[in-house]
């Protein structure tokens, strides 16, 4: 079920309230400046800033440029897939077919590593964030020499998740081999210019005089003092973290990527919707043993240049952080609605992911957001509508028996279903009249044969769920109707 098909919008005041709550909960002392924005498929809905980007008293503005660091990897992945779509390269071929001289060694034996394994962070190359952060400006010749000497793998290629900046840089070299351009030139001509990302650059010197560009800072005393940090250079590893951008440009980029899951994907001439969906599916599972009081995740993994979370309440959320000496950034968006948040801080201690996560969670919770993005079958929607009308009218389940497969009333006899429904309504009160359209009350559709929706009652919601069997004439094989004990959404919190 797509965001556009549900026709959901969000009030700017709700987004502003979410940002205010997130800023109030965050440690703003950790960075001289902070900037965050809530966005949807049309762009920025609301933004909020604090501090001074150069620590000189000049306030942070909506168009202040920050370095986005590893958020750049989504552009790298998109570039790789664009060339794959054109038949210029094969993701499952060894990287050495495009970039000779890379030696990957496991237990004394050389291993073949594919482009797919590199872009999905399961190449066996060790995690290298601390080292990689300071290597953005390294020369291509120097990195090639290190690769020729032999890189020690810590796992068999394809075996496990390990975040490798070095591995991503080899993807960039393959792109350069087949395109005849530097990675930076290819990204600019293929994505930045066609999508109108006019404030996104790899080189800070490319901004015109007078542009508000945040300087990088470090602090080691909880914001008592800030030490200015020179920009890490742009060289062989700029492909993995070199970009500078604004909240509006990142919002536009995220909306472009996320729109692949809607019925109106943006700019398919730039990159196919299919490839963008591939970026946003888990390819490599990330072990996640953290206790997360802010959200409950069923799964988390790396796609291509993006991290994917499967949230128990909200479904799929796509995100990526960025961190370099002097900067912290984060972008995340909710596929079912297209709502997202981007956050910047100009200190590597800022933890922009925390600010962005709080703001998006607050937005989605206040808006009572649905969970998933799969479009149901017409038969699923028709069966749900029949059951929905019957429940609102107080009719018995037997009156809609034609939409049920034979097992439904045998698995749970009609009199048991009626008794359970009565018990739920005793808890929730009467069904409220004048319900919104079913599409506005849909909560999730994990597959085309399923739909979960709610019916508003005096003291909460009835939660309804159906699953159809995929016959030529699909019929409902599973039906549950139960009390959902939670307050109704606020009137101004519709999305």
Can you describe what's shown?
- It is a single chain.
- The protein is an alpha+beta fold.
- Helix content is 30%, strand content 21%.
- The strands form 5 sheets. It has an 8-stranded antiparallel sheet with strand order 2-1-15-14-13-12-11-10. Strands 16-17-18-19 form a 4-stranded antiparallel sheet.
- Helix 2 packs across helix 11.
- The chain is globular and about 75 Å long.
- The chain starts with a helix and ends in an 11-residue tail after the last strand.
Give a concise summary:
This protein is of the alpha+beta class. The chain is 30% helix and 21% strand.
Shape: globular
**Assembly state of the chains shown:** single chain
Quick one: biggest sheet? Answer: 8 strands, antiparallel
Report low-confidence residues grouped into runs of 5 or more: 1-8, 485-495
Distance between the termini: 14 Å
Q: Overall pLDDT, averaged?
A: 92
Name the structural class. Answer: alpha+beta
Strands ordered across the widest β-sheet: 2-1-15-14-13-12-11-10
Q: Tell me the helix content.
A: 25-40%
User: What's the total helix number?
Assistant: 15
Instruction: Count the beta strands.
Output: 19
Strand content: 15-25%
Q: Using only CA atoms, what is the Rg?
A: 25 Å
Describe the secondary structure blueprint for this structure.
Elements: H1 3-6, H2 12-25, E1 33-40, E2 43-51, E3 66-67, H3 73-85, E4 104-106, E5 109-111, H4 115-119, H5 129-133, H6 140-149, E6 151-152, H7 165-179, H8 183-192, E7 216-218, E8 227-229, E9 244-245, H9 247-258, H10 273-279, E10 284-285, E11 297-302, E12 307-311, E13 315-324, E14 327-334, E15 340-345, H11 352-366, H12 378-393, H13 408-411, H14 414-428, H15 438-441, E16 442-444, E17 450-457, E18 460-469, E19 475-484
Parallel strand pairs: 4-6
Antiparallel strand pairs: 1-2, 1-15, 3-9, 4-5, 7-8, 10-11, 11-12, 12-13, 13-14, 14-15, 16-17, 17-18, 18-19
Helix pairs in contact: 2-11, 3-7
């Amino acid at each position: 079920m797509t965001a556009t098909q549900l026709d959901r919008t969000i009030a700017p005041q709700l987004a502003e309230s979410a940002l205010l709550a997130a800023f109030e909960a965050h440690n703003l002392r950790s960075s001289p400046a902070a900037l965050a924005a809530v966005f949807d498929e049309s762009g920025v809905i609301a933004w909020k800033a604090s501090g001074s980007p150069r620590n000189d008293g000049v306030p942070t503005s909506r168009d202040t440029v920050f370095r986005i660091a590893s958020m750049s990897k989504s552009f790298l992945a998109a570039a790789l897939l664009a060339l794959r779509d054109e038949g210029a390269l094969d993701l499952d071929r060894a990287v050495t077919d495009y970039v000779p001289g890379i030696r990957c060694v496991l237990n004394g034996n050389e291993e073949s590593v594919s482009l797919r394994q590199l872009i999905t962070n399961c190449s066996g190359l060790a995690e290298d964030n601390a080292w990689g952060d300071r290597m953005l400006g390294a020369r291509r010749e120097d990195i090639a020499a290190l690769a020729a000497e032999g890189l020690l793998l810590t796992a068999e290629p394809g075996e496990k998740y390990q975040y490798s900046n070095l591995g991503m840089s080899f993807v960039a070299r393959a792109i350069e081999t087949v395109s005849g351009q530097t990675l930076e030139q290819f990204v600019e001509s293929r994505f930045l210019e066609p999508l109108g990302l006019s404030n996104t650059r790899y080189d800070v010197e490319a901004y015109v005089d007078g542009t508000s560009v945040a300087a990088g800072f470090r602090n080691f005393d909880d914001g008592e003092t800030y030490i200015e940090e020179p920009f890490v250079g742009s060289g062989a590893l700029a492909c993995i973290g070199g970009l500078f951008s604004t909240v509006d440009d990142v919002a536009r980029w995220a909306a472009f990527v996320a729109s692949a899951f809607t019925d109106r994907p943006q700019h398919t001439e730039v990159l196919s919707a299919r490839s963008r969906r591939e970026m946003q599916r888990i390819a490599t599972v990330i072990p996640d043993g953290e206790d997360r009081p802010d959200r409950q995740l069923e799964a988390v993994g790396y796609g291509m240049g993006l991290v994917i979370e499967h949230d128990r309440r909200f479904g799929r959320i796509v995100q990526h952080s960025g961190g370099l000496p002097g900067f912290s950034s984060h972008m995340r968006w909710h596929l079912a609605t297209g709502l997202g948040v981007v956050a910047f801080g100009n200190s590597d201690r800022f933890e922009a992911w925390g600010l962005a996560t709080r703001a998006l969670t607050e937005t989605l919770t206040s808006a009572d957001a649905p969970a998933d993005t799969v479009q149901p079958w017409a038969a699923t929607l028709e069966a749900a509508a029949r059951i929905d009308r019957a429940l609102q009218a107080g009719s018995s389940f037997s009156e809609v028996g034609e939409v049920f497969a034979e097992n439904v009333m045998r698995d749970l006899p009609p009199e048991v279903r009626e008794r359970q429904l009565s018990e739920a309504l005793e808890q929730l009160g009467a069904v409220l009249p004048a319900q919104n359209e079913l599409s506005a009350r849909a909560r999730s559709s994990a597959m085309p044969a399923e739909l979960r929706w709610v019916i508003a009652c005096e003291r909460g919601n009835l939660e309804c769920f159906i699953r159809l069997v995929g016959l030529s004439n699909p019929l409902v094989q599973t039906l549950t109707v139960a009390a959902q004990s939670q307050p109704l959404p606020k009137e101004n919190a519709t999305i």
